[in-house]
Amino acid sequence: MTPWGRFGVALHTDSAELVVAAMPLGHLRNPVTDAVALGPLAVLADFAAGLVNYHRRSTGEWTVTGELNLEFTPDAHAVVAGNPDIPAIATAVPIGGRAATSLSECRITYGDNVIGTATVRSVHFTPDGELSHDLDLHSRDEEPRDLATIMSLSVIAAADGPPLLRQDPHPEINNPLGVVHGGVAATGLELASSALLHTTGGANLRTATMQVTYRYPFLAGAESHYTARPVRLGRSSGSTDSTAIGADARPAITARITAYR
C-alpha cells in the first residue's frame, strides 16, 4: 500500500498532458480541532501535479517535489462540510518547458464547485538505484478513515499550548525513497498550523494558502514531529510558519500557512 492508496486516491486520466485524480475528503478531520481538514488536499495535488511532472522526466531520471503551493477558495471549508460524501477532483496540466525542474498546476473541484488551485515544482535527478513506480492505488476494506490513523500521527497533549503532533513511522506513508511522502508531510504542517491558531484565539480561522518548501528528506522516527509558530494573528487573519522535524532532529520541510475568517 502506498500513501495514495491509503488516502483513497483514484486515478481517472494519466498522460503527459493531463492527469485527473479523485480523493475522498469530507470525512478527514483535524484530530485537534475536529474541523474539516483541507490539508489532505496536498496529497491529492502532489499526486496529480507531481505525476504530470514525472511524465516529463528523461530516461533514468526520477522526480521529487521541491515546492508545493495551494490556494483554497473562501468557501472551501463550507462546501466540503456541507456535502462530505463526494470526492475532491484534481485536474493537473504542465506549465511551460522543463530544465532541472518542471512545473505543473492543478484545479481542485468538489462537485460543481472549484475549491482550490495548486502548483507543484518537481526536481529531476538520477537515483543511485532503481526505484519502483507502482502507484498501488487499491485500498483495503479495513483501511482507517480517521486522519490521525491514516497518517500514523500521534496527538500528545501539552501542558501549555497546542498538542504535539508526532509523526510515527509507517511504511505506507513513505514514498519510494523511503521517507515520508511530501503530501502527507504537508498535511501534517497544515494540521499543526490550524491547531496552533485554534488554541491562540483563532478558532474561526480557516486555512487559505499553503506555501510548502521541501529542504531535506523527512525521516519518521521517535523524535519526528510537526510544529508551528505564530507569525501574525489579527482579527480577520492569521499566519504561521510550520516545520516538519525529522528523526535526525533536522528541519526537513517548512511551510508558511495563512488563514482567514
Question: Could you list some keywords that capture this structure?
Answer:
261 residues, alpha+beta, Porin, 12-stranded antiparallel beta sheet, 12 strands, 18% helix
Could you give the topology of this structure?
Layout: H1 3-6, E1 10-14, E2 19-24, H2 41-54, E3 62-72, H3 76-82, E4 87-95, E5 101-110, E6 113-125, H4 147-151, E7 153-156, E8 164-167, H5 182-199, E9 206-214, E10 225-233, E11 237-245, E12 251-260
Antiparallel strand pairs: 1-2, 2-4, 3-6, 3-9, 4-5, 5-6, 7-8, 8-10, 9-12, 10-11, 11-12
Helix pairs in contact: 2-5
Describe this structure in words.
The chain is α+β, with helices and mostly antiparallel strands. It has a single domain (3-260), classed as Acyl-CoA thioesterase, double hotdog domain (Porin), CATH 2.40.160.210. Helix content is 18%, strand content 38%. The protein has helices at residues 3-6, 41-54, 76-82, 147-151, 182-199, and strands at residues 10-14, 19-24, 62-72, 87-95, 101-110, 113-125, 153-156, 164-167, 206-214, 225-233, 237-245, 251-260. The chain has a twelve-stranded antiparallel β-sheet with strand order 1-2-4-5-6-3-9-12-11-10-8-7. Helix 2 (41-54) runs antiparallel to helix 5 (182-199). The chain is globular and about 50 Å long. 42% of the residues are buried.
